[in-house]
Structure formats: structure tokens, C-alpha cells
Amino acid sequence: MTDYQLGALESRFADVIWANEPIASSELVKRSEELFGWKKSTTYTVLKRLCEKGLFQNIKGTVTSLMSRSEFYSAKSERFVNESFNGSLPAFIAAFSRRNALSPEDVAELKRIVEEYGEG
Predict the structure, then answer these.
(1) Once rounded to an integer, what is the mean pLDDT over residues 1-24?
(2) pTM of the prediction?
(3) Percentage of the chain exceeding pLDDT 90
(4) How far are the Cα atoms of 8, 71, 75, 117 from residue 106, in angstroms, in the given order?
(5) What is the pLDDT of residue 69?
(6) Could you tell me if 53 and 7 are in contact, meaning their C-beta atoms sit under 8 angstroms apart?
């Protein structure tokens, strides 16, 4: 089962992989040093952790995703709504909109999504 929790640096690291895959692990080490100031061992430790979470794989020095960025964040959102609002998207939107006003554009986009869902 995928662990949908990523720390801030893990998330940024994952974004580097998603944006550049397939990426050689040696290139990932270089980019991690430039972006995060990490040593080679840190890069491989974090990569191993994300591979164990089911997000990526490192086969013969080439890192690729097992789950796209979009799939990951969709699954993370779904899990949050299921755990926090008993799977009720309307309950989530109601709670969200109590503290964050929905703009007319937000409302129009939500309507469009619902209409597309109804058609499809």
C-alpha cells in the first residue's frame, strides 16, 4: 500500500524525478546536490524511501515513476476526503468554503466538473 505522506523535501525531490524521468540516478545525485545541498548518500536514502512507498523504481541506475504526480496527488486527496469526511466530497467542499470563499471562477469550474461527470 502506498504511503501518501511526503515531507516538504521529499515532495520537492519527487517533483524533480517526475519532471525529468526517466532520470539516471547519477544525474539525480547531481541535481540533488545543486538544489538541496545533499550528499550522494542522502539522495540514495531518500530515493530508497520513496521507492519503498511505491512511488518510484530504480532499475539499473534509471529512476522512473510507478505513479505519476497527478495520480499520487489524486490518491492523496481521495484518502484525505475518505478519512476526514467519510468519503463525502460535498462535506469537504462545505468545510473548505466556510474558511475559504469560492470565487465565481471556482464555482463555474466545479459546475463544469460535475456536468462532465454527469455526461461521462
Answers:
(1) 91
(2) 0.79
(3) 92
(4) 27, 22, 21, 17
(5) 96
(6) no
DSSP, residue by residue, 66-104? SS-HHHHHHHHHHHHHHHHHTT-HHHHHHHHHHHSPPPH
CATH topology of domain 8-69: Arc Repressor Mutant, subunit A (1.10.10)
Can you give the residue ranges of every domain in the chain?
Answer: 8-69, 88-120
In angstroms, the CA 45 to CA 32 distance is: 12
Residue 43 and residue 5 in contact, taking contact as beta carbons nearer than 8 Å: no
Amino acid at 10: E
**The three three-digit cell numbers of residue 23, written as one number:** 532520470
- At 57-69, the pLDDT tens digits run 999 999 999 999 9
Rounded to 10°, the helix 25-36/8-20 angle is: 130
> What is the rounded CA–CA span in Å between residue 37 and residue 29?
10
Q: What is the largest CA-CA distance in the chain?
A: 51
Query: What letter would DSSP give residue 4?
Result: -
